[in-house]
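Hi,

Apologies if this is the wrong queue. I'm a grad student, and the batch job for SCP-like extracellular from Natronorubrum tibetense GA33 produced an output file that my downstream script rejects. I'm not sure whether the problem is my script or the file. Here is the sequence I used:
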Amino acid sequence: MEDRRPSTDPNGSDPTDRALIRGILRFFVAVALVGAIVFGAVLFAPTLVDDIGGVDEFESPDGVDIGTQPSPSSDPPPAGERDPNVTDPNDPNESAYEADVETIDSMTVEDFVHAEVNDRRAEHGLEPLEWDGTVASVSRAHSYDMADRDYFDHVNPDGEEPMDRFTDVDDYCRGYGENIALTYIDRPVQNPDTDETDRHETAEELANGLVDQWMNSTPHRQAILEEDGVPDWDRAGVGVYLTDDGEAYASHNFCREY
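Support response: The file is valid. Your script probably expects a header line. Output copied below for reference.
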């Protein structure tokens, strides 16, 4: 049958051209959305047991001896490059906290977190994430900023989101995601996701506690395991900042290169 539809609309434009333009616009919108994704709602930080319902002293769960200290941390597998060509000017570099068992330094915690996340990914058949020193520097700067300006969010008080913070420093990620966490060192805390009581006394325990927080939260786990529409990441960086009061802020940022 002959197609009797007009080749142009009443304004004289070609429908084929208009369809092509719509397709191009949809493509650029999709790219913008991928670049702006922030994975994981903000976690509620574990609550200090001392602060729950006016409790004055911590009582150990049945069968748990709180007088037994863990062994010091083992040596973590080095995550990767610590001195990249491009760093965030607000990166505080290494921070530390003198715990009862050992001196916990942020670099060691970052190494343990990176290794533990890759172990969890391997359990689900995923390739390990490559350590990216620049992404880690941006992550560390955000962790420090949250501690310094006393907030806990993906969006900082200046209105900057994760992708904004990264593109202020460099621009090679077409997809970018962020998980953040806050916990405490050497003090009993109640995990809001599991209601279990934890105490992080070593760098290794602290790192495992941070990863457990993320894995026990659906959107954060999806970011780590690339589930439910999350891009296939190829690199990541961990940034930890430890305060003098024993607060541990962590940002884990993911990148997919162009």
